[in-house]
Protein 1
Amino acid sequence: MISLRKFIAALVLTSCLLFTSCSQQAPSRFDGAQQDSTSKGATAVVSKSQSGSAFNRYFPDSADGYQRVYSQEKKGFAEAKLNQDGKEIAILSISDTVNNPSATDKYQSSSSKINGYPAVSQGSSGTAVLVNDRYQVKIRSKDSSFGESDREAWIKRFDLRGLSKLN
Amino acid sequence: MSASIFELVDNLPKNNVTTMMLKSLDSIVPGEWENTVGFVDTIRKVTGETDEDLIQQIGDRAVWLYNDKSQGYQRAMWLYQTVDRADKALGSAALANKVGNKIPLVGGLLSKVTPNPDKAQAIDLSIKLVVELVAFCQINGIPGDSIGDFVGSLKDYSGESLMRMAALVCVDGLIPLGPDFLLKAQSTLGGMSPSDLESNSTFKGVSDSIPGGNSRGKLNFIGESFDSVKGWMGDFVRSKNLSPEKVMNNLQGFLEFSDNKLDYVAAFIDVSTNYYEHTGTQTLARRLIERAFDEI
């Protein structure tokens, strides 16, 4: 006769197998973020963040055959597409780094500036400045015709000085 | 716990009845839709970036944003999932019966589907449209009842979003309701009572997310939304020179059916595909990734 201990051991092993085989997805490089962001009290956007609509007026206007089309507006974030002849060539955005403070780290090691504000390039497509140690203004190219010098020129078209006074 | 955004995108099928159906519609919106699946591949595709550390940062931020319920992404995903009620078993059975690149719509497959009455089909069409409107607002952060903003942005639709709208017009409009599907749907909505709406299963699934308060208010909202978007749909049909026959020709690229079974084509597609959920997941992932890259 099977002893009770063996029976329980077998039961535990079988249920472990059943449990893991049903619930386990392949491990992902994003598991850490998933775990942290679903822990109690975790939020991606904090209450003291600036509203997204507060940013709209600092965006550059449509000009010289370029059209600015607003595309997203969430708390702490506003985004617009820059189109030329109906084709998307770049993405313009302003975000409040209180929601993602590590975004400011990259400016610590950068010595470059645009209009006096700390500037960085990011990946192969992005250029950004940090205004008032808080607001990140970023332009990302969506077309190879719009290069780094275009991004720098268009960052200067934002009302950076106005944005620096936003509290 | 609901699935993570990376699981949802990783689990999008590369090839099933839904993707075959969407590919068959490619000539209507040429080159707009590519079936990009997998979270990391989607990040690469959307951003054009290859640096692994950067991809990690973008993905991590996207995961955080998706999991913050206040940001609306989960609600949008739920809407896209709920409005499609695909029968996965039927889809698999259809794939298993594939001959060459086509699914023959015969025998057992036919006996499992029943054509929708016009009224139910008209409600389905208009509710899918409202789901697009509400999901669009949730994803892009526009107040949920901004019909005007949504209509304005339709002209800017591209990629998988435009493909979703093309499929809506074709397989939920023209095929089941005929060339005058807009008029039919509008007259159905006009003659409908709140209790008619309440008894519709598609409505029941997503009712809580439709603005308008009670059923009468929701019915009004559905009517107003349909009214505002019908111009865009009519222009789409005219500019692409679409007709039920033309769409049928496209669908014959993946489906084999005889002319006396046309009624069943719409019913089969309705039950065996989840094109709203599939392309909706792709749209949501794209918007999330764009925002994540802006914020890191």
Note: Residues 75-283 of chain B form one domain.
Protein 2
Amino acid sequence: MSTFLGMPTVRPHPADPPGAPLRWGPSFPEAAHQTLRDEQLRANLRTATRTIRDKRRRVTAELGDWEQLRDAGAAIKADVMARLPELLTELEANVTAHGGVVHWARDAAEANAVVTEIVRAAGAREVVKVKSMATQEIGLNDALAAAGIDAVETDLAERIVQLAGDMPSHILVPAIHRNRAEIQEIFTHRMGDAPAGLSDEPRELAMAARAHLRARFLRAEVAISGANMAIAETGTVAVVESEGNGRMCLTLPRVLVTVMGIEKVLPTFTDLEVFLQLLPRSSTGERMNPYTSMWTGVTPGDGPSEFHLVLLDNGRTRALADELGRPALHCIRCSACLNVCPVYEHTGGHAYGSVYPGPIGAILTPQLLGLGEEGGPFGAHDPTGSLPFASTLCGACYEACPVKIDIPSALVHLRERSLHPDGGHPPTATDLAMVGAARVLASGRLLRLAGWAAALVGRATGGRPIHWLPWPGSLWTRVRDVPGLPRRSLSAWWRDRQGWSR
Amino acid sequence: MTGPTVREEMLARVRTALGPQPPAPAGVPRDYRRTGTLPRGSAEALDLLADRLEDYRATVVRSTDDVAAAVAALLADVDSVLVPDGVPEDWLTGLTGTVRDAPPLSHDQLDNVAAVLTTCRVAIAETGTVVLDGGPGQGRRALTLVPDRHVVVVLADQVVHAVPDAVAVLAAHPHRPLTWISGPSATSDIELVRVEGVHGPRDLRVVIVAAPTGGGTLTASRT
Amino acid sequence: MRIAVFATCLVGTVMPRAATATVRLLERLGHTVDLPAGQACCGQMHVNTGYGPEAMGVIRNHVRTFAPVLDGRWDAIVAPSGSCVASTRHQQADVARRGGDGRLAHTAEQVAAHTYELSELLVDVLGVTDVGAWFPHTVTYHPTCHSLRLLRVGDRPVRLLGAVEGLELRDLGEAEQCCGFGGTFALKNAETSAAMVADKADEIQATGAEVVTAGDWSCLLNIAGALDRRRSGVRAAHLAEILASTRDEPWQGAAL
């Protein structure tokens, strides 16, 4: 991140500079403790997620074959994972045949080095960027800055986040945590060329961004993008966007570098007919996003004369190796799961401490980082290990996912990974309590005893609600009562009625 | 450039991750609509296209035979109109100040052109989408990007109902650079308030030509 | 019909009124009801908290207790809980299989096929929507997440409530939003859970209903706990309690 000392009016979110973009900050409950207090954030998120949720519901209901499209999308993605080696080499061959150069990168450092070298070779000190999760994930901007190269984010929300020194808090609308007044403030103090008397009207703010970025687009020598999909059969790469900043980056500069996770490959050109219906409707809730660009290698006389495609692993093969976690790689980054998630709606994206927030982030981030692997993160109190627990398993995400990723089941599986890491670990107090509870819950006799004990307490408290319990019950009674306990146990009631059956 | 070792190692990792018995390639059920129900170029398809484009706040003009008049009306207030090669000459009769991309214009020159007039490859009624593939009358991608107004003429038989119909048309030349345009550029990044017109053309005007007359010229842009 | 009631561990210990209501309702409808003594828990809490391997014994006990349904001891098993039924249907066999017990997995699947959530049993198996209940109160219904999305009980509970004499149903705003319970989530992420249940309580109070109902006492425990803490005056009743209530034996809330 660049330094913005001496301009105290804009405070970055999160306040502490994050470490790694894939996982920074404390555990989810600790981070949520901070974000839940931000009333402004809560209000922004509530309005935003509800608006986008309703739009999505309207445009998906409009298509009579929506469920069939989801089934096709899920099956195509499963097929991609099964045939990944052959599809990647096919993609490489076709991109190369059309004048592109394909690079392979095992991790963030390798990818950053490849991109930095391409920019250096082009002699550029400034690059324009299309919003891209993959380049966020690898911290490309910081790596370029370290090499003296200024990476300018050109998506409006991404530019807001960059100018503010924030981290993104949503996959689609990274500045969703900022309202118009804050954005006015950020532009006024950080843009450098903001018009005098800039108001907080969204239109005026958007026009200020247009003016601010236009000269940069026209002079840029190098652009960097991600990819929404790439077609193995043809070597075609696609970027889906709204503002036209993508088209500017993909069309005007001489050199284009695209960084793409290996899971983004699709087998055939025909598959576009599925994903170009699923993605926009799930993502922005539009029938179609304003602009989609597709290109294959280089086209003489049209667009960049040099094209590089960087294929990124960075933990994806770890997720691929886990059969139950693998579906996380099916994600098309639409963010529908964030918008319907009640946990996300309350805590916001920064509580997840990752460029991938929300339900999909809670299953993707831990897998990319090797949760439960020997020497890897684990445990419910670890920043990464806590992510799979950041869900009530309500299932709204699974219902909304355009490629039917069973996020709740993956969360449950990763909770188990988090608590049972390879190589074992000394049991925690919770582990011991749960083992003890399992013995009670595996026995009708012991559970009846528990019921009898509860009724004893019920009689002692007169069946009245309980307002206070010692820890860990205090976690419950801080905001809730425990409804009054029964004065008679179920087994006693049944025995009196007719005797336990045998 | 990365050496073959990184490539080989990554592919090996992928194979290892899939295990000694990789999952069988999954069959893909394609029982979604593979073709739209509205016939290509039908009045219903044209109406739907117009409705969906207007929903994005594009300007839509319906025309039957006098394309030149419709185009002239949409460009009456500008002094320079960029015309890529392949736009039928008889559409241009009402225009003054046409500019050609020969020799290719610089980015700054493009930035000083007020409008661009093009044909298209295919249009999708259901989603209000016009697709350019760089064929005759469409020009290189920068031409329809930098000028602030884009006037595109859509001929009836270029209008298909649904997305799969369009993908089938485009599959004839999948390697051409494609630009799918659904309304003027827009953003909802500030409090999810939609603002039309950011970096791409802020002003999209579409002429939908219902009945081709003088067939030869009007279908000239199709390949 | 001979019906075995699976009370669930939570109802069996702290909220027996949902189980007693289920028994009384089914007997009133002319069925023979059993409450098998060996029953305890379906294993859901352990599985969902990441203790799948530790849940093996719990699942084994559940399957053993209810396996006689396969020999015709009962015609069906019913539980007054959407999420416990969902766990028997969608989790038990998977956990058993991963734990290396294929036979247990197989039996669990067979037992699950005979296991119903209360509204499913009434509407689909017994074919009734009007159970002859009387409940002279305004009521709002919270569709619990697992009933809604895992079991897809749909409008069955609402149809049952709609046929109750004297009951006035009030629509709940943002009804399909989770209440924030989530089992151990309420403890592990206590503050987020609290924020979520506060919203749910707001929506419930906005309906002006006297009673909030749902098909799961686990979620109701969370919701009622928050409503009680606010001294909202809104009372909580399981769907079974409302359906068991008649003029002769009216609902008495907490009394057992």
Note: Chains B and C do not touch (no CB pair under 8 Å).
